[in-house]
From TrEMBL:
SMART domains, A to Z: AAA
One Pfam family in the UniProt entry: ABC_tran
Protein name in UniProt: Putative ABC transport system ATP-binding protein
UniProt superkingdom: Bacteria
Record's keyword terms, sorted: ATP-binding, Nucleotide-binding, Transport
InterPro entries: AAA+_ATPase (IPR003593), ABC_transporter-like_ATP-bd (IPR003439), ABC_transpr_LolD-like (IPR015854), MacB-like_ATP-bd (IPR017911), P-loop_NTPase (IPR027417)
Upper taxonomic lineage: Bacteria, Bacillati, Actinomycetota, Actinomycetes, Micromonosporales
GO MF annotation list: ATP binding; ATP hydrolysis activity; transmembrane transporter activity
One GO location term (cellular component): plasma membrane
Stored SUPFAM superfamilies: P-loop containing nucleoside triphosphate hydrolases
Length: 233
C-alpha cells in the first residue's frame, strides 16, 4: 500500500528550481533511499513529503490525504504525531540531558512526565546509550549524540521517519553500526523510512533507491544497484 506519494512536485527558491516535477510513491513499511548529487533536490523533496515545505505545484498525499493543501497548523500536528525527523547533526537541545531530549516529543504530544521519561530511557537503552541518559549533548561523542537523535525520532513510534543524511557527520564504522540499528528498529515497528543520502554505502541499507538529478527523477538507471545490496529484505 502506498503511504506517501508525490505527483509532479515543483518547488523553487526564488529563481532556483529545486524540484521540476517529481513523481514518486513510497510503500508502507519500505525503506526508500533518495540519492543523487549535491544540489539535485533531495532535501527539498524530503521537506515537501514531510509537510515542512509546501510545493509550488503538484500534489503530496499521505495515506490518501492531500497534505499540500493542509494549513501549517495541521501539517505541524501531523509531523508531531505521525512523523519522525532526523537530520545530519542530531539537533539535540544543548541545555537538556539525553533523556530529556528523547522525552521531549512525547511531552509535546501530551504524555505525562514520568511516562515520557520511562519511554525515553527505554529507547536510549535500545540504541545502546543508556549510560549517557543524564549527560548533555556537549558531554557526548558524535556517535552517542546521533544515537540519542535516533531515539528521539523513534520515541513517538512514528509511521514515517524522514532521515536527511543521518550519518553524514560520523566516521564510516560508527555510521554503519547506527544505520544497522536504525533499519532493524524501523523494520521491527514497520516504520516507513525515507532516507536522503548521496552516499551509496548508506543507500545500500534501503529496500529501494530513487535517484534525483537536477530536480527530476533520474530514469537512466544510474544508482539503481546500490540498494540491492546485502542489507535489503
Ligand atoms: N533555502 C534555500 N534558499 C535558496 N536556495 C535553496 C534553499 N535550499 C535549497 N536551495 C537550492 O535548491 C537546490 C536543491 O537543494 P537541496 O538542498 O534540495 O539539494 P540536495 O540534493 O539535498 O543537496 P545536498 O546533497 O548538497 O544537501 C540547490 O540548488 C540549492 O542551492
Amino acid at each position: 500500500m502506498t503511504i506517501l506519494r508525490a505527483r509532479g512536485v515543483v518547488k523553487s527558491y526564488g529563481r532556483t528550481a529545486a524540484l521540476r516535477g517529481v513523481t514518486i510513491d513510497v510503500a508502507e513499511g519500505e525503506i526508500l533511499a533518495v540519492t543523487g548529487p549535491s544540489g539535485c533536490g533531495k532535501s527539498t523533496l524530503l521537506h515537501c513529503l514531510a509537510g515542512i515545505l509546501r510545493p509550488d505545484a503538484g500534489e503530496v498525499t499521505y495515506g490518501g490525504h492531500r497534505l499540500d493543501t493542509w494549513s501549517e497548523r495541521m501539517r505541524s500536528r501531523l509531523r508531531r504525531t505521525e512523523f519522525g525527523v532526523l537530520f545530519q547533526f542530531g539537533q539535540l537541545v544543548a541545555e537538556l540531558t539525553a533523556a530529556e531530549n528523547v522525552a521531549l516529543p512525547l511531552l509535546l504530544a501530551g504524555t505525562g512526565r514520568r511516562e515520557a521519561r520511562t519511554a525515553a530511557e527505554g529507547w536510549l537503552d535500545r540504541l545502546g546509550v543508556a549510560d549517557v541518559a543524564d549527560a548533555r549533548p556537549g558531554e557526548m561523542s558524535g556517535g552517542q549524540q546521533q544515537r540519542c537523535a535516533v531515539a528521539r525520532a523513534l520515541v513517538t513510534e512514528p509511521r514515517v521517519l524522514f532521515a536527511d543524511e543521518p550519518t553524514g557527520a560520523l566516521d564510516s564504522r560508527t555510521s554503519e553500526a547506527l544505520l544497522g540499528e536504525l533499519v532493524r528498529l524501523a523494520r521491527e515497528q514497520r516504520t516507513t523510512v525515507l532516507l536522503v543520502t548521496h552516499d551509496v554505502q548508506v543507500a545500500a541499507y534501503a529496500d529501494r533507491e530513487v535517484s534525483l538529478r537536477d530536480g527530476v527523477v533520474d530514469a537512466s538507471g544510474l544508482g539503481l544497484t546500490a540498494a540491492q545490496g546485502r542489507h535489503g529484505r
